[in-house]
Input
Amino acid sequence: MSKLKTYKFSDLYEMSSGISSKPEQAGHGSQFVSFKTVFNNFFLPDALSEYMDISEKEKEIYSIKKGDIFLTRTSETLDELGMSCVAVKDYPASSFSGFLKRLRPTQDDITYDKFMAFYLRSDLFRKTMTNNSIMTLRASLNEQIFSYLELILPDFKEQKKAGDFLYSLNAKIELNNKINTELEAMAKTLYDYWFVQFDFPDANGKPYKSSGGKMVWDEKLKREIPEKWEVKRIDQYAVVQKGDLITAKKSKEGNIKVISAGISYAYTHSVSNREKNTITISGSGANAGYINFWREPIFACDCITVRGKNDTITLMILYHLKLLQNYILSQATGSAQPHVYPSDIKILNYIVPSNDLIKLFGKMVIQSNEKIANNLKENQELASLRDWLLPMLMNGQITVSEIQKEIIEPK
Output
């Protein structure tokens, strides 16, 4: 059990507002922290992808240093307000958005940056933040809030142990995400190379079209395709149907994700043995026509599901539909709200290569797809472990030494 001590937030941090920029300053110059970057990350990325042209004086005023905390200061909803992101290194010659607040530590032995990143994202602190925010037309927070907000913290040494441990869990999640992004990109590139540019390996292992492979005109597509390939409707190679009409009993503790309009919003215990590798297309509303792909078993309702005859064909149809995303969105119709129906997807044309090429593509991508699925599952487990341990570490109920003894290195 770690001892806790109460501090006033304003005694430990100095608050500053971000830069008020003009449109012509954006997109070039120095590294820039945006609302989106803060909202989507526990920690600032190692390299910032957005830029702002600022003066030397502004670089000093809106600087970013190790230990700085950034909070979203205004939003349309309370849920997006006061979301935190922490800098664990200096970012020279940088600046941050006027839609953010910067909290710079005025001490170096009471709060530990990596621990604070998780502390400020915890359910307990999030509730404290939203309860003390102002909601008019938009939610907002100001410096007055921090004059009476309190932090209840373990001692610095325990914060450091806890912060480093939680950071290691987060780092593993980030690594898995990077691996998945690379694997996704490789599979997509291979699909484009083989089935869009038609430079799949010919009998001699050379790129088919670039090496003079025979192309024939297809009247349906109004374009040339490789000889002996066919053009079929998607429903000849996949099952396209409306998701279950009966909404599953929802539970946060369920083991099957419930999907509505392509967005996961709950879990259920009421169904089992659902198939993996399912394409979903939002059926109605603002998201009508948007495509998602789920490698885990799901319970689908209020959306269209697409499953190929096997996983390889499912992946091929996924990449094909992604190419048609804008067209599908344009077909969303309805007077009250947009709709996309299974019949709209079933009739889409699909170029069918030889069975041998389909099998070869499967050998190239199925293992990667399974690796992505395993990484996503591991990320869910790591995030659950992190979120389960965090409140106990915050209130001193458990220490990192005890975690390592009981969980990491069980007898």
Q: What stands out?
A: The longest strand covers residues 26-33. The longest helix spans residues 156-196. The chain is about 35% helix and 25% strand. The mean pLDDT is 87.
